Amino acid sequence: MGGINTNFNLLAAGYLFPEIARRSKAWLSIHPGQKLISLGIGNTTEALPPSLVKAMKDKLDLLSNRETYTGYGDEQGDTTLRVALKEYYTKYGVTLDDKEFFISDGAKSDAANLQELFSPDCIVAVQDPAYPVYVDSNVVGGRTGEFNLSVGRYEKLVYLECTKETNFIPKVPTQHVDVIYLCSPNNPTGAVMSKSDLKEFVDYAKREKAVIIFDAAYCEYISDETLPHSIYEIEGANECAIELNSFSKSSGFTGVRLGWTIVPFKAVIGDSNPGVLNHMWNRRQCTFFNGASNISQAGGLAALSDEGHKECMDLINYYKGNAKLIRDGLTECGFTCFGGDNSPYIWAECPNSYSSWDFFDILLDKCQVIVTPGVGFGPAGECYVRVSSYGHRENVIAALARIKEYFKK
Ligand code: PLP
To answer: What is the mean pLDDT of residues 340-360?
Structure first.
């Protein structure tokens, strides 16, 4: 008998951000009039770069005129934007074909939808901790089995632990897997994989006929130019890797919505022939997606121009300035911190071996500052919190002052 997709029942209860909202609301209800400062969510706060705004306004003007109005565009995205993205990769020495690019409404939906390309019996590996959509989309896709509450893990998933001992860098699986999700610079730890780290994964994937889904949403935050911005900087990665990226954190497009996915012609999984994954993703997008907003795409194109890129880098540097303040401020309070130099996130070890949620509650109750409990990203995130640099500078300074006042007493 038919019915609901019961895999939804397997999703671990209490998704992280609703639980943070619930606790914050409960605290405010017994402390009316108090103001909480959030360094918890990875949501941008600063105004859009001017040349991107102009490009979107100009596009809107064209749409306001019958002579220049356009409706649906290509499902894969505007050719001009795909070509501009292809050009963007050449600065990293990466050569791709514009038909390997698929423009979307953001990396989160692509990260979730990509699992549709793989058979239900694929073995999936994720970093632990990890951005939750990689796990949850595979739960819904039926590849995970039950959630084991005592260890905080799904039965059939392979967890690649990223701990202080590994510098928060994953090690290649010790068993066969078919699909591997990697995120670098990493959300939540802020760790960035080096070329040799990535090469080990590329070698593994080619050996095991696995596919890597590489999420590079924060690559523009990399300051250390020896670190790779794209997995395709590694030779042979186009035979085994799909890359995701987004304008959200590089251009302030969290609300505007625009991202892209690269599915190289040569990429394969198992015994699939080269070209099949690219063809399938094209088919999937043409069938289930009507293309990204034409206004957003005009803004995205402007972000890739020299002027737009410079303005976007100013925006990124603003958040990186916040990240430095946060890391320095927390370190002054005696916390051990990681990340924040090539990423917008600081991964702070909870003092006194507090659990992530206990430390969250202390920061909420004693400092009125919201952070994100690390355990919400996976069991290896226990005893850490993620502190986000997305916020107005004055709020970051005020939050740090509150934390210092309490912890430096
Ligand atoms: N990938 C990672 C690692 C993220 O942290 C985020 C957003 O926080 C996304 C993807 C989502 O990007 P988008 O806004 O393009 O959907």
So the answer is: 97
Report CA(131)–ligand 1 centroid distance (Å).
8
Distance CA 244, CA 230 (A): 9
Which single residue is written with the structure tokens 């292809």?
Answer: 86
pTM confidence score: 0.97
Separation between Cα atoms, residue 370 and residue 356, nearest integer Å: 12
**Structure-token pair, residue 138:** 């595979």
Q: Within 6 Å (CB) of ligand 1, which residues are found?
A: 42, 106-108, 111, 131, 183, 187, 215, 217, 246, 248, 254, 259
What contacts 104, CB < 8 A, 6 or more positions away? 77, 110, 258, 259, 260, 261, 285, 289, 292
* For ligand 1, atom 11: residue with the closest CA: 108
Give the residue ranges of DSSP H helices in 304-378: 306-332, 356-362
Question: Furthest-apart CA pair in the chain: how many Å?
Answer: 67
pLDDT for 291-300, tens place per residue?
Answer: 999 999 999 9
pLDDT of 409 higher than 70: no
CATH superfamily name and code, 6-48+308-407: Aspartate Aminotransferase, domain 1 (3.90.1150.10)
The fold of the 52-305 domain, in CATH, is Aspartate Aminotransferase; domain 2 (3.40.640)
* Site of tokens 């590996």: 125
The CA 217 to ligand 1 mean position distance, Å, reads 6
List phi, psi (to 5°) of 251: -125, 5
Q: Would you list the domain boundaries of the chain?
A: 6-48+308-407, 52-305
Give the distance (Å) from ligand 1 centre to CA of residue 409. Answer: 37
Angle ∠(357,139,155) on CA atoms, nearest 5: 75
Closest by CA to 170, choosing from 131, 208, 200, 134, is 200
DSSP 397: H
Supply the residue whose CA is at minimum distance from atom 12 of ligand 1. 107
As a residue count, the chain comes to 409
